[in-house]
Amino acid sequence: MADVNSISGTSDPYADTYYTASVNDKNTLSMTGFFQLMAVQLQNQDMSNPMDNSELMAQMTQMAMVQSMTSMTDAIENSTAISTQVYAAGLVGQQVTVAITEENSYGQDVPVDVKYAKVEWVDFTSGSPTFKVEGDEKVYPLTHLVGMGEVPNPFGNSSEEVGKNPDTDTDKKTDTTSGIGTV
Q1: For the CA atoms of 145, 147, 149, 153, what is the dihedral angle to 10 degrees?
Q2: Nearest 5 degrees, angle CA 93-CA 137-CA 110?
Q3: Which of 123, 97, 124, 125 is nearest to 111 (CA)?
Q4: The model's pTM
Q5: Which H/E stretch holds residue 88?
Q6: Under DSSP, is residue 4 helix (H, G, I), strand (E, B) or coil?
Q7: Are 96 and 149 in contact (CB under 8 A)?
Q8: Is 114 exposed, middle or buried (0-12, 13-18, 19+ CB in 10 A)?
């Protein structure tokens, strides 16, 4: 029996494939290119039926709006990146709550517990800020930050959190009638 893979050049001829166009000089139109295209259009128009001024203005307005939206999107992306870096830099020396994750059967990191520690340093070289906490060799992405200080464990595990700082723990008793904690 013939091997289909050697004939077709694909591993699965029935697999769905999706193509997305990446932005490059060949598939984007700049303002310069737009004006060049408009000049050629005006040069080659039919003199017995010239181009309508309102259509020309509508095209120019649309192109200006697209350029403005692109500029605004770039500015917002830059502002967000700077805000994230400033926020991450402010974490150094702060007590934080970090999510401890485990990989599930689908290969995704799922939070299972928390760790309380002080941030030693923040790294900006990988594009997205990462940080390291005292007493742990793992480098965490900013997305693993649960909160500042000792945030209660939102993942519902036992009252003993992984990495809980024993110096700050106190024996607390709860009044079962009022639900108010007492020391």
Answers
A1: -90
A2: 95
A3: 97
A4: 0.54
A5: helix 53-89
A6: helix
A7: yes
A8: buried
The predicted-structure confidence for 57-104, as pLDDT tens digits, reads as follows 888 888 889 889 989 999 999 999 999 999 999 999 999 999 998 988
Closest CA to 142 of 155, 163, 157, 127: 127
Q: What is the pLDDT of residues 136-165, one digit of tens each?
A: 999 999 999 999 999 999 887 544 444 444
Instruction: Quote the CA–CA distance of 77 and 83 in Å, as a whole number.
Output: 10
Sort residue 149 into left (φ over 0), alpha (ψ -120 to 50) or beta: left
Averaged confidence pLDDT in the chain: 78
> Phi and psi at residue 138, in whole multiples of 5°?
-75, 145
> Vertex 104, ends 101 and 109: CA angle to 5°?
35
- Where does 13-52 have alpha helices with state H? 31-43
